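INFO  loader      accepted 1 record
INFO  loader      residues=410
INFO  predictor   begin
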Amino acid sequence: METGRIGRRIAYWRERRGFTQGDFGRQMGKSRRWVQDLEGGQRQADPRLSVLERAAEILRVPLEQLLAEIPDASVPTETPADVRAVLDALDHHDILTGVFGPDREPPPPTAVRRSLDYCCNAFQACHYSAIGRQLPQLLIDAHRAAASAPAGAECAAHAVLSRVYQLTASFLHKFGTTTTAPAALAADRALAAAERSGDPVAIGAASRRVAKSLMYQQRPEAAVSFATRAAARLSADLGAAGPLGLSTLGMLYLNAAVAASARPRTPGSVIEASGHVDQAEEAAGRQGEDRNEDWTMFGPTNVRLHRIDVLVRFGDGWSAVEAAEGLDPAALAGLTRERRALHLLAMARASVLTRQREQATRALLEADAMAPEEVRGRPSGVHVVRDVVAVTPQPSRELRELAERCGLRA
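INFO  predictor   done
INFO  writer      dumping tokens
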């Protein structure tokens, strides 16, 4: 074993898991300086196998991931042109607020809603490039429609504006750390518009984006707290709003569960995340079936997929595989393409954790066939491809070709 290479792999996975050197050192029972020396290849002796096994357990990866070479990857870091156009629209505060007056008549609310529906459909179909082309103008139009809304229609106009900003935050989160800050800005604006609308569903939906934004900022404690407090505050109103409200409430609980699973794996964090999934399951039971209310695709099946995802995030691959065995294929097929593709990527991760290399490849290729923009165009999707390649001694032709399309060496 070469200490330098092992150290670089530990640093790679530590950063992937969001641990500082101090965090990782405390869990290893070592000092921060020890971690620095190990990652820098400055320790004279190779780490003992027991040390690597403990590191793999903390980092939630198979031991082979620390022993095998990590393929080079050109994970997308340059912001695509259509994403830059969305960022430019967010920066043009004068245009968005209409402080200097619009240069044309504001669009009718029906036209704004139609464009929003188109973009939401594109998002659930994983057609992110189509959203990038439409979203900059939609942001401007939604602002102008809200600014010019007649008396009695302001609340509805601001609820639509909030939904546009929610979509913007979700869209930007697809592109990883380079767009974390503008996504947070969009989420905050979504919540401000929702509060102005006075609509509990809009407020709950926007709160989900704020919680998710906090998670992407690697602040899981704050994300859990924000989501659960919003759920507690809005629970009565959302429960009384029928399937639309229950979907919003259930998704708040699922956001809290995912955020809780971003913490280091401890008995307490596992119990807490599982409890939030249970709360979502109760809301889904009251709702009764899978429904795409307000583009949530919430229901019993989505809750089940989130339970599997939480297990994967905690590194419990075998439990995730076991939980997936009872999924109803017909119910799964009824979900959106985005939700199914994300589930396949989660199963690819679970298969890596359980050393089921063929199953990992199969799930990954199926996800790519279903939603190539979700796999090749997102940093997180490319990371899954890299993980599968790293543990596959002899990648198939299809896997090698996918890796090459992602900029990876297979």
